[in-house]
Amino acid sequence: MIQDIFPHHFDNHYDSLKKPDKNSRILYFSDENLLLCPGIDPFPRQEELPAGKVTYLFTMDSTAYFLANENPSHIPAGALYFPVKKLRFHSRLVQKDIFIAWTALQIVRWMRDNQFCGSCGEKTIPSPLERALLCPHCGRTIYPRLNPAIIAGVTWNDKLLLTRYADHHISFYALIAGFTEIGETLEGTVRREVKEETGLSVKNIRYYKSQPWASASDILAGFFCEVDGNPHITRDPAELSEAFWAEKKDIILQPDDYSLTNEMMRVFKEGQI
Questions:
Q1: Of 94, 121, 153, 166, which is least packed with CB atoms within 10 Å of its CB?
Q2: Residue ranges of the domains in the chain?
Q3: Do 147-269 and 10-113 have the same topology in CATH?
């Protein structure tokens, strides 16, 4: 999955006093597009493209990454802004780089969306102690938001329920997924989402694995479960364009191995579940 970057080590410990050195990488965002440079490392070093005011993000191995708070005065030859959401399909980037970009975008979105206090409207400031934003007027502390969501691998008679989202821009197959609502357990989310999208009832809900999914600020929890009763699918057309039972030999995996969804499809296809 996208976070499986061993032997690299990701350290998200926050340090408000950390300053860039000549080898630090500077991430320049324009909306949700990230500046990529030609060469082996797509992210410019501080000495290559110096930034003024920066915000410390995290460290990968021994390299610190910072967010540039202003656009560069010039763009190096061959550099371009590329949509972060499409980086997983960028042939030149390795998995570590895509994980860095996605995680940085999640922090950038949080900072952008909380420039002002939601309680009193005052402009927020960074906390000197932790990764948080503070309201100097009412004292509110705003932490990065994570959205809990589930992935459900629904099985019946050695078959797996495959779906395709109603969003036709996404061409590959997936599993049932959805966000957890207020007052709901993760297992309750599995039951509700499966019922709402396919009309199926499920039982024997078993936790499989979790994954951060930065493009939607998710923390995903994967579960396998079995159909309880009638296996007839009643598809919700607003959510899904397809929903069907697939035998192992007929399961078509996604084009990369970054997602929890794809791993769950793969382990079922290979008989590991």
A1: 121
A2: 10-113, 114-144, 147-269
A3: yes
Question: Is the pLDDT at 213 greater than 80, yes or no?
Answer: yes
Across 10-38, average pLDDT? 92
Beta-bridge mates of residue 178: 150
CB distance 101 to 83 below 8 Å: no
Amino acid letter at 96? K
Q: What is the mean pLDDT of residues 55-65?
A: 95
Architecture of domain 147-269: Alpha-Beta Complex (3.90)
Among the listed ranges 64-78, 118-132, 212-226, which one has the minimum average pLDDT value?
A: 64-78
Band (pLDDT 50/70/90 cuts) for residue 183 is very high
| CA distance linking residue 177 with residue 221, whole number of Å | 10
Task: Look up residue 54 and give its two tokens.
Answer: 């920066």
Cβ atoms of 54 and 1 closer than 8 Å: no
**Measured between alpha carbons, how far is 23 from 87 in angstroms, rounded to an integer?**
23
Burial tier of 102 (Cβ tally within 10 Å: 0-12, 13-18, 19+):
buried
How many Å apart are CA 222 and CA 71, to the nearest integer? 39
Average pLDDT estimate for 156-161: 97
CATH number for the domain running over 10-113 = 3.90.79
- Assess whether pLDDT exceeds 80 at residue 18: yes
| pLDDT band, residue 168 (cuts 50/70/90) | low
